Amino acid sequence: MAGRLPPFRSQWKMPMNVLIVFAHPERQSLNGALLDCAIGALEEQGHTVRVSDLYAMRWKAAADRADFPDLAEGERLRVASASAQAFAAHDLTDDVRAEQEKLLWADTVILQFPLWWFTMPAILKGWVDRVYACGFAYGVGEHSDRRWGDRYGEGVMAGKRAMLVVTTGGWAEHYSPRGINGPIDDLLFPINHGILFYPGFTVLPPFVAYRVDRLDDRAFATVAAALRTRMQALGTIAPIAYRRQNDGDYRIPAMELKPGLEKPGATGFALHVD
């Protein structure tokens, strides 16, 4: 079938460069303890780890005129075009360029955050808004009747892995296929598919810890052990089999999945997983 990912084969060589983008306001928290657990497990395997602790960095979350100092006074701000011009001219702000350099350095990127109101905290979304500049993470590649840019499996992050480490206060059952909050894979799809797969990352299944506000020491030890196991498998675990945009499964430029490629009864997000 066109667009199908080949059978997964690990191609990673040890050690890896791993960037963890951490978005929790309290370092002395369960999230902070899980971050330490992940760092320790990765470093034990010889990986090099860098952490962008967004709250500690006092990361500026809002994309606004301050991001484009060369924009003429009185000129209307069009974020995408201003971003493209600043990226091409090497005029992005220092904080944004530093994070882009970390992304280019990394073999694997981990976004770690608590699930707040069914998505990532605003500070992490603001990191994406500003760091994913036009010309860097989007707006790249040929746009024609054959391809529609380098995205969804292609792009500047192609060849790199990425995954989410997520905590939530709800029960696993609340996020099950019949759970009232909706399936966790559906809730995370806009992040996994739209923020990670879009610029080219190979996306690994997320690590999700549930009922974290009620974990006692024994339960935390179980979660920490599971996270360590996941970190040990970072280079070998099979990725989510998202369909690549330009490999034949989609009609271009409409970008609709061609009829007959989906599993019987599949709709919505499930259409884009082969």
Summarize the structure.
This protein is α/β, with parallel strands linked by helices. The chain has six helices and eight strands, in the order βαβααβαβαββαββ.
Rg measurement, Å: 19 Å
Name the CATH architecture: 3-Layer(aba) Sandwich
Query: What is the averaged pLDDT score?
Result: 93
Sketch the topology as an H/E string, one letter per element. Answer: EHEHHEHEHEEHEE
Going by helix content, strand content and strand pairing, the class is alpha/beta
Number-wise, the strands total: 8
Within CATH, the superfamily carries the name: Flavodoxin domain
**How many individual domains?**
1
Euclidean distance between termini CA atoms: 9 Å
Strand content: 5-15%
Relative helix content: 25-40%
The biggest beta sheet is recorded as: 6 strands, parallel
Q: In one word, what is the shape?
A: globular
What low-confidence regions span 5 or more consecutive residues with pLDDT below 50? 1-10
Query: What top-tier CATH class fits best?
Result: Alpha Beta
Under CATH, the topology can be stated as Rossmann fold
Features:
Flavodoxin_fold, two-stranded antiparallel ribbon, alpha/beta, disordered N terminus, about 270 residues, 6-stranded parallel sheet
Structure description:
- With 274 residues, the chain is α/β, with parallel strands linked by helices.
- It has a single domain (17-69, 77-240), classed as 3-Layer(aba) Sandwich (Rossmann fold), CATH 3.40.50.360.
- The protein is built from 6 helices and 8 strands; from the N terminus they run E-H-E-H-H-E-H-E-H-E-E-H-E-E.
- It has helices at 30-44, 79-88, 94-105, 122-131, 184-197, 217-232, and strands spanning 17-22, 48-53, 108-114, 161-167, 202-203, 207-209, 250-251, 256-257.
- Strand 4, helix 5 and strand 5 form a beta-alpha-beta unit.
- Helix 1 packs parallel to helix 6.
- The radius of gyration is 19 Å and the shape is globular.
